[in-house]
Specification:
Length: about 400
């Protein structure tokens, strides 16, 4: 027998009052999006659940894709059979024979929305349970915590059978919380931060600072590749490359070594905020983690954050490095992150950055620079690329590969 559809149960969005339909429609679009490479698949969604009709598409492949969609609590593959007692008996026998292991317990749980059906739920449970025991004499019917619960649903058009529940990704549908700008380096932390923001429904755009020729095409490709990994969870992502060379050279020339890092980060924050405003983002997301490096002391965070009132979300701020690495491995970004291409911060990093920068000094050094002009030119020079799971920018990347 082949699965006909997948029944999808919603996660937290069921508690969202009158926003509920907005959430459900977004989730439906997100499911349609990840399944768009299976043209036969159709998706419907009502208040209580969504249905993914396979129409012959491969269940395993579709299920793998569904597991990454935020806003899904669980889903069950479903067989569809004719509403006929003889057919139903044969179907439950086939299914249970396929699942049977020695000592197995089971129960049949029937629901009827078609109340004109010949048998009521109690009679159906008995008849179908009996049919199973007929072909598997050693199987035990058990009402409490059976190994297998075979659900039978008698609907108007047909009967639907399911026995398996697959855990979904949880979270909220991407796009339901608004847009945020993810500051994406080539490191381990920021892709994980992006993943966690997506998980809470934030649609992200990736902002990446590049300083050619100090940073290599390889570093840029790495950032592209990391972004592409994130498209698995939220669909296409706009990748915004910011030209950062001029700013880094200016800072290096005019500010003392110990303050390079703080000044650099403040510029990044200002520029990201300006881009956010242009592109109707609500928040900034970054991969800062408390105490990891000099830029990530509370004093540093305060000095860097002082350039904006925009909320800065730091999803990994309280996580241990090992916890972040575990997640990076789970979302398959770790191996890309550890590729040895230096990003702009590593190259200009001083040996001993200030861990407790004083705002007074920071402002004094910035007065030596044309902050507004530098920010404006960087924002003007951004290059926006749409990153897709298998996108056109691959061609560019392939070219880069040849050159490397
Ligand atoms: P990551 O692993 O994300 O690079 P990190 O531990 O290396 O983080 P930092 O280098 O201090 O930490 O960077 C802190 C955060 O600043 C990063 O997580 C990222 O959000 C942002 N950031 C750093 N460099 C860049 C860059 N080149 N482009 C965009 N954002 C950056
Ligand atoms: Mg880094």
């Amino acid at each position: 027998m082949q699965y006909a559809e997948i029944m999808v149960r919603y996660g937290e969005l069921s508690t969202k009052g009158k926003n509920r339909m907005r959430f459900i429609n977004q989730l439906k679009r997100n499911i349609q999006h990840v399944l768009s490479r299976y043209p036969s698949v159709k998706v419907t969604a009502d208040r209580d659940r969504a249905h993914v009709y396979l129409h012959g598409a491969d269940y395993q492949a579709v299920a793998e894709a569904l597991k990454e969609v935020f806003g899904i609590q669980a889903f069950s593959p479903v067989y569809k059979v004719e509403k006929d007692v003889v057919v139903l008996k044969k179907a439950v026998q086939d299914i249970m024979q396929g699942l049977y292991r020695e000592g197995m317990t089971f129960k049949i749980a029937t629901k009827r929305s078609d109340h004109s059906f010949d048998l009521d739920t109690r009679e159906l449970n008995q008849t179908l349970g009996g049919a199973v025991v007929e072909v598997l004499p050693t199987i035990q019917a058990q009402m409490k915590k059976p190994d297998v619960t075979l659900k039978v649903e008698i609907r108007d058009d047909a009967a639907y059978l399911s026995h398996e529940e697959v855990k979904g990704a949880g979270g909220l549908p991407v796009g339901t919380s608004g847009r945020g700008m993810l500051m994406l380096s080539g490191g381990i932390d920021s892709p994980v931060a992006g993943y966690l923001a997506l998980k809470r429904g934030v649609e992200i755009e990736a902002v990446h600072f590049a300083s050619p020729p100090y940073t290599s095409p390889g570093a840029l490709k790495k950032a592209h590749d990391l972004t592409r990994k994130l498209t698995k969870f939220g669909g296409h992502i706009q990748f915004i490359e910011v030209p950062f060379t001029e700013i880094q050279e200016e800072i290096k020339e005019k500010a003392p070594e110990a303050y390079l890092m703080t000044l650099t980060r403040r510029f990044m924050m200002r520029i990201t905020d300006a881009i956010r405003e242009q592109r109707s983002g609500l928040i900034i997301v970054n991969g800062e983690s408390l105490g990891q490096v000099a830029s990530q002391t509370l004093e540093s965070m305060q000095a860097i954050n002082a350039v904006t009132n925009t909320p800065v979300i730091r999803p990994v701020v309280t996580m241990d490095k090992l916890e972040i690495i575990e997640l990076a491995q789970k979302i398959d970004t770790f191996d890309i992150s550890i590729q040895p291409f230096e990003d702009c911060c590593t190259i200009f990093a001083p040996d001993r950055p200030k861990t407790n920068p004083k705002l007074k000094h920071v402002e004094q050094y910035e007065a030596r620079l044309d902050v507004e002009g530098l920010v404006a030119r960087a924002v003007e020079g951004i290059k926006v690329t749409e990153i897709t799971p298998q996108g056109q920018e691959d061609q560019v990347d392939d070219l880069i590969n040849v050159l490397l």
